[in-house]
């Protein structure tokens, strides 16, 4: 897989970014061609058009739309990685790739080295809609070890998207960073139900939201369009490492 150096324009931290690989319908692994040396772009506002990029398969020449490569910096910034544009020559018409039953998925998320118990590799779900974001979060929570993860038929006024044994979760699939109020509302709902609360966000979090989540021990995860959840605070790292805590006696 191709790796390029990326510097965060917000905190100046250097990263080694590895290109995500997707399966073309022909079966060949396909990856967006990154532009070496081009600076990463800080994402402050999302649009669906900017979140997708054309990628041509080197094996069959097919051109499809794939999620634009992104990187979540530990400082909280979400960076868009520049991609070389696809040449317009050729006769293959652009098409939109969709997930089909039995087709291979994108590259797997490696198990953190601090994980207490081995897990099977997590297979991401490419996010194209808000429903996809909720489905991805549900799959990830099951991968972490939560049992009976379910989605309410209608979203309640508390904005809870997912429930599991000992857990409630909210998925913010909007194009704006998740704010302080969302963290506090989730924490209060979890406290009232005597369960843990987890937040997933497609656009990241404000500094106030991250600081409050750290103080309340609320795990925060970001989602990118490849369907790859990433922990962004200490409670989330701990959840990935040790998994769900056993329920209290009588719970």
- Radius of gyration (CA) equals 19 Å
N-to-C CA distance: 46 Å
CATH-level-2 architecture of the largest domain: 3-Layer(aba) Sandwich
Strand content: 15-25%
**Mean of residue pLDDT?**
78
Cα shape:
globular
Largest sheet: 5 strands, mixed
Uncertain runs are 88-117
Number of domains in the coordinates? 2
N-to-C SSE string, H for helix and E for strand: EEEEEEEEEHEEHEHEEH
Which structural class best describes the helix and strand composition? alpha+beta
User: How are the strands of the largest sheet arranged?
Assistant: 10-11-12-13-14
According to CATH, the fold-level topology of the largest domain is: Trna Endonuclease, Chain: A, domain 1
Count of strand segments? 14
Tally of alpha and pi helices: 4
For the record, the CATH class of the largest domain is Alpha Beta
Give the proportion of residues in helices. Answer: 10-25%
Keywords:
Restriction endonuclease type IV Mrr domain-containing protein, 5-stranded mixed β-sheet, 19% helix, Trna Endonuclease, Chain: A, domain 1, alpha+beta, 251 residues
Furnish the topology, listing elements before pairings:
Elements: E1 3-7, E2 14-18, E3 22-23, E4 29-30, E5 41-42, E6 52-56, E7 63-67, E8 70-72, E9 78-80, H1 130-144, E10 162-164, E11 167-172, H2 180-193, E12 196-201, H3 207-216, E13 220-222, E14 230-231, H4 234-242
Parallel strand pairs: 11-12, 12-13
Antiparallel strand pairs: 1-2, 3-4, 5-9, 6-7, 8-9, 10-11, 13-14
Helix pairs in contact: 2-3
Biased composition (Low complexity): 87-106
Protein name: Restriction endonuclease type IV Mrr domain-containing protein
Region (Disordered): 87-115, 232-251
């Amino acid at each position: 897989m191709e790796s390029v150096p990326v510097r965060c324009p917000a905190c100046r931290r250097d990263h080694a970014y590895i290109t995500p690989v997707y399966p073309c319908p022909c079966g060949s692994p396909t990856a967006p061609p990154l532009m070496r040396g081009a600076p990463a772009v800080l994402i402050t506002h999302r649009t669906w058009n900017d979140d997708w990029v054309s990628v041509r398969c080197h094996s069959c020449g097919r051109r499809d739309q794939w999620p634009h490569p992104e990187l979540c910096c530990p400082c909280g910034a979400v960076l868009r990685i520049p991609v070389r544009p696809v040449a317009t020559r050729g006769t293959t018409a652009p098409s939109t790739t969709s997930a089909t039953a039995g087709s291979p998925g994108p590259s797997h998320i490696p198990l953190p080295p601090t994980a207490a118990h081995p897990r099977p590799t997590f297979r991401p779900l490419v996010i194209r809609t808000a429903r996809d974001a909720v489905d991805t979060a549900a799959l990830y929570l099951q991968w972490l070890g939560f049992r009976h993860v379910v989605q309410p038929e209608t979203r309640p006024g508390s904005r809870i998207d997912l429930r599991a044994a000992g857990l409630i979760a909210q998925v913010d699939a909007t194009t704006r960073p998740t704010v302080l109020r969302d963290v506090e509302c989730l924490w209060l709902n979890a406290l009232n139900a005597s369960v843990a609360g987890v937040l997933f966000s497609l656009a990241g979090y404000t500094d106030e939201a991250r600081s409050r989540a750290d103080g309340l021990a609320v795990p925060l995860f970001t989602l990118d369009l490849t369907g790859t959840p990433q922990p962004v605070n200490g409670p989330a790292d701990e959840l990935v490492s040790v998994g769900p805590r056993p329920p209290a006696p009588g719970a």
